[in-house]
Amino acid sequence: xxxxxxxxxxxxxxxxxxxxxxxxxxxxxxxxxxxxxxxxxxxxxxxxxxxxxxxxxxxxxxxxxxxxxxxxxxxxxxxxxxxxxxxxxxxxxxxxxxxxxxxxxxxxxxxxxxxxxxxxxxxxxxxxxxxxxxxxxxxxxxxxxxxxxxxxxxxxxxxxxxxxxxxxxxxxx
Length: 173
Prior knowledge:
Elements: H1 3-9, E1 11-14, E2 22-25, H2 27-31, H3 33-45, E3 54-58, H4 62-72, E4 76-80, E5 90-97, E6 100-107, E7 116-124, H5 128-139, E8 143-152, E9 167-172
Parallel strand pairs: 3-4, 3-7, 7-8, 8-9
Antiparallel strand pairs: 1-2, 5-6
InterPro entries: Ade_phspho_trans (IPR005764), PRTase-like (IPR029057), PRTase_dom (IPR000836), UPRTase/APRTase (IPR050054)
Main location: cytoplasm
Catalytic activity: AMP + diphosphate = 5-phospho-alpha-D-ribose 1-diphosphate + adenine
């Protein structure tokens, strides 16, 4: 499959989760074994020679392809979640939203010191979640070597906030 074929499977859902938002539904990509394999290959190939130790995926759609990319790179997979969803000692990072703040957490023992980390999520929008995740990795003494996204919403310019490591996105809007 080509990128345009993958893009054709993404469905726009107007006014979800609120009026004025056009949600990019990746369910058809997940439903297609061929699409999943293509996406995993394209995302992982970019980082094959980067000696990735850990792939970190953000709640919750970042888990879907993040685990597959981790498998393809023979790396561990670690979740970043909203507060109160991970057991044991966690590291937190608060970040700004358009109207307020939110917090992300990671289990502090899951990122080995000096681990080479790839951050993956389904969509790069404003970059706030990815930036907060990179700050979590730094608090855990890991090194972010790149960002991986299935979809990038170019008009929101989130890439500009992620200057310190390369950003790779498959589908652009």
